[in-house]
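WARN retry 2 of 3 for item q-0093 after timeout on previous attempt; input resubmitted unchanged.
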Amino acid sequence: MEVAEIKKNIEKILDNNKAQSITSINLKNKSYIADYMVVASGTSSRHLQSLSEILVSELKKLGMDDCRIEGKDSADWKLVDAHDVIVHLFHPEKREFYDLEKMWSEEIPKQKAMI
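OK item q-0093 returned
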């Protein structure tokens, strides 16, 4: 599956499960860790946990067996590693505090791209 298709599937799964403020950030030429980062908010710690588990389950149905969840013990943040797409799920206050969209929105020269 192409990276753009993975990203679209992730956005659709999150939207179908009532994630809020879904934003995709293109990381090409900014980082070698992934091609895209998807950031979304959940309404509660239970919603964040459900979103992360549903996302991994649905991606598995699409043939992506080795996706994993980080932050299982955190009440206000989850990360789903979906190969070339990293998904951050935040409680709204934590999302505002970390402001990943601002941090990753600036263009970074290719020779300074982070690993």
